[in-house]
Amino acid sequence: MPLQAIEKRSLPDDVFEQLTAEIVSGAYAPGDPIPSERELSEILGVNRHVIREAVKRLEQIGLVRGMHGGRTKVLDFRRTAGLDLLAVLAERSDATEALLPLLTDALEMRASIGADLARLCAQRAGRAVRANLVQLAEELARAGGGPELLELDQRFWQRVLDGAGNLAYQLAFNSLIRTVHAHLAFSLPWLEAELARGDFRRPIASAIAGREVELAASATREALTPPKGLERALRARRQER
Predict the structure, then answer these.
(1) Which of 63, 74, 191, 212 is close enough to 28 for a disulfide, judged by CB 3.0 to 4.6 Å?
(2) What pLDDT digit, counting tens, does each position of 102-130 carry?
(3) Buried (b) or exposed (e) across 23-41, using 16+ Cβ within 10 A?
(4) Are residues 106 and 204 in the same domain?
(5) Burial code of 140-173, b = ≥16 C-beta within 10 A, e = fewer?
(6) 216 and 129 assigned to the same domain
(7) What is the C-alpha separation between 51 and 108, in angstroms, rounded?
(8) What is the dihedral angle through the alpha carbons of 139, 144, 147, 151, rounded to the nearest 10 degrees?
(9) Which positions of the chain have pLDDT values less than 70?
(10) pTM for the full predicted model
């Protein structure tokens, strides 16, 4: 997708998102210089201060590096970027097609992180957190379908995170949740199916409440592991819309 003049005036965000998409799509290869501030200002129709702010954000998330006395060059984001890039890409409304393999990867990672979180929560959580998880699982079972499921499920996992007491996992999970819930048309159907398949988090909550550490981990991994063919199914759903 070529760079376009900015029409909506959330200027630094718009410039940042366009440049991010260009870099991740391969329009600029690692080692390539991006256009100069002056060139970008002319192409995008914004002042150089806006360009400078957007490029600074690109540096912060590991997409480019300013060379002393020279041009700003593109980095290999697969080696330099973090999970914050994952969430940025997911929230681009025009990136749905590219999002599908990324969504599958994020769900796979979520299963691994979730299993360890449940293990830690079963070891460390106090009585109040453990009781609340059982209650939230029952609320999930009664909720039916729709966006309410997203809110309840996020509350459930936030309590698991509270009980696990690991800030690094909290930050990683934040990015994963933003990624997999970025597009409701895709996230709701698989979440509804996942909850039904995993008995609405009840086995996870029960294992944590009983301090059954390994059972909590295995129940979580089983519940969160994405089914085979998920990307193909999501792609077919997108074509039906």
Answers:
(1) 74
(2) 777 878 888 999 999 999 999 999 999 99
(3) bbeeebeeeeebbebeebb
(4) yes
(5) beebeeeeebbebbeebbebbbbbbebeebeebb
(6) yes
(7) 36
(8) 10
(9) 1-9, 91-101, 229-241
(10) 0.76
The two structure tokens encoding residue 176? 């994963």
Q: How far is CA 61 from the centre of its chain?
A: 14
> What radius of gyration, in Å, describes the C-alpha atoms of the chain?
21
Contacts of 62 (CB under 8 A, 6+ apart): 75, 77, 80, 81, 82, 85
**pLDDT for the residue numbered 227:** 75
Q: Is 38 helix (H, G, I), strand (E, B) or coil?
A: helix
Q: Print burial letters for 82-115: b (CB count within 10 Å at least 16), e (below 16).
A: ebebbbbbbebeebbeebbebbbebbebbeebbb
CATH number for 194:
1.20.120.530
Please tell me the predicted confidence (pLDDT) of residue 230.
59
Residue 20, domain extent: 11-81
- Give the tokens for residue 109: 């990672």
Domain presence at residue 4: no
**pLDDT given at position 155:** 95
Q: Token pair for residue 240?
A: 């039906």
In the chain, the amino acid numbered 94 is D
Give me the pLDDT at residue 147, please.
83
Residue type for position 43: I
Taken in order 192, 220, 172, 23, the sign of the CA dihedral is negative
At residue 84, the pLDDT reads 81
* pLDDT tens digits along 29-65: 999 999 999 999 999 999 999 999 999 999 999 999 9
CATH no. for residue 17?
1.10.10.10
